[in-house]
Amino acid sequence: AEDDEAVEDDEAAEDDEAAEDDEATEDDEAAEDDEVAEDEDEDGTSVNGYRGKLNAHLNQLNAIINELNTLSAEGEVAAADVAALYTEIQMLQDTISAEITRLDGALQTEQQFVMDDVTDVKRYKKLAKLLGKKGIVTFVNGEEVTFDVPPVVKEGRALVPFRAIAEKLDAVVTWNAAEKMVIVTRGDIEVKLVIGSVTALINGEKFPLDVPANVENGHTVVPISFLAEALGAAVEWDNETSSIIVLEQ
Question: Could you give phi then psi for residue 177, rounded to 5 degrees?
């Protein structure tokens, strides 16, 4: 009987420990969500979007300063009034500059979180919200990729300029103008895509494409999921933030 009671006590202790661990995990996740909420303004505006508004406000203030300079030079405003307005404007400028610095710091902090663990998809989502960019945002191994032309969506598939993605994955890219063919090589993998064709080649083997490679504004775009996975990477899509996340496997 004593042994049975001891077993029951041990099991109860284990249950208590498990419950405490679950509560700790929930607290950590809630804290992470609070961090993002603090980095956004009350309307949920992104850091970049809010910075744009602040910069626009600074431009308006500078226009007022220029106008005051003109009026002061022409003697149409009393010197004391000009001085008071200058003081008010300087205070506003200092406040706005401090806010911009704080918001930039929040963005850099989130970018560092992503780089610390490039496999944490949840962090990419938070970073994309802070960036607040229109259209599709693309990340490869934690780094945001910029393109000469923006990615497009055709028939539910994202197409991106192939060169930037391939180079981020340390692949070699060539273009066969005569055959309108993109050739991407990485190690012992060779991928060939022909403009307009719904068939691609991986090491000579044919694979069907949901959408073909295309030309957008003079740049060749290819289905990113197919290309990344053919080169040995994994692709995640976050619908809420329109983010493409490419990760090395």
Answer: -65, -40
Band the pLDDT of 78: cuts 50, 70, 90: low
Angle at 144 between CA 142 and CA 147, to 5 degrees: 145
From the CB of residue 58, how many other CB atoms can be counted at a distance below 10 Å?
Answer: 15
Full strand arrangement of the beta sheet holding 152-154: 152-154, 157-161, 219-223, 214-216
Q: Scan for tokens 């060749």, then name that residue.
A: 220
- Condensed to tens digits (0 to 9), the pLDDT of residues 133-191 reads 788 889 999 988 888 888 888 888 888 887 888 888 889 988 898 999 989 999 999 99
Report DSSP letters for 219-239, one per residue: EEEEEHHHHHHHTTEEEEEET
- Residue 197 has phi, psi (to 5 degrees) of -95, 140
pLDDT at 31: 47
Contact 90, 208 (CB under 8 A): no
Q: Angle between the 121-131 and 47-73 helix axes, to the nearest 10 degrees? A: 20
Q: How big is the CA angle at 23 (ends 8 and 9), to the nearest 5 degrees?
A: 10
